[in-house]
Amino acid sequence: MIVLMENIGNETDWWELMDEFANFTGTPPTEEYSPCRIEIETLNKYAVLVIYALVFMLSLLGNSLVILVVLYSQVSRSVTDVYLLNLAIADLLFALTLPIWAASKAKGWIFGTAVCKVVSFLKEVNFYSGILLLACISVDRYLAIVHATRTLTRKRHWVKFICLGIWALSLLLALPIFIFREAIEPPYSRPVCYEDMGANTAKWRMVLRVLPQIFGFLLPLMVMLFCYGLTLRTLFEAHMGQKHRAMKVIFAVVLIFLLCWLPYNLVLVADTLMRLRAIKETCERRNDIGRALDATEILGFFHSCLNPIIYAFIGQKFRHGLIKIMAIRGLISKEHLSKDSRPSFVGSSSGNTSTTF
User: Where's the G-protein coupled receptors family 1 profile domain (predicted)?
Assistant: First the structure.
């Protein structure tokens, strides 16, 4: 497994070759180029398959119900609800790719370049649209509670344009992945779905990693921290008990997103710093980061099925909407609907900014 790089003239060439097929986001290295004994199977593939299947089923069911409930509640649909609807659509689209990712973990990438591009693209779009939608929700809550303004939130057609802008930006940030991802068969390894950018793969990969992390993660995260920090301060100072309850779902959604995706992005930052030589690279550190990337990526995948669970346990109006739909369809007795008292809209100075969940 250990290959001596005797035929390489200088240290720069050695690093370039080693980076070409390094252990990056689940991509196995080639023994031909790596001087380290890098573990290709970092996690038990059977456990991973079970996790993927569980996430797929929960996400498919949960996000479909969320979309159904929001679409049924046209009269009481709020600005935040529109954002959460788009979030559910993004999670659902990503969930549909999970069986393919699961199969690739078991057998390598056997689906060809076209499928590689599409599923990688959907994964990236899901991540970027998720954090950008949450950032917009934080701005909406900040304007409605801290500044008590209804100028933007009252006009729902603006929300549609904002959501279209979010999808456009997410597609733009994910576009490099769609362009450069290909099905590759590296020596001494199973086929992989991987970026292929020619001779300057290592350098371009750094650019395509750093820029999305800044504009697709760090900046939206700073917006959320700023908006929710001031929103929380306002709520506590004003002792707004009703608004505290209305904000529970939103804070839970943001917290779950951070718990699921922040570890992966922190490991990705560490890996980036290691490849930029900002921190020393060793074989042990490379293996540790490879294992951490695989584990935290699975944690990120979990996010696609968790939001509906939050709505079900915390969101009273989501439960009421779901019970109402089931009663209309004759799945349950209408007595359940009468017993389930409809909670009042709370959460802002305007009904248009309250949340269904």
Answer: 62-311
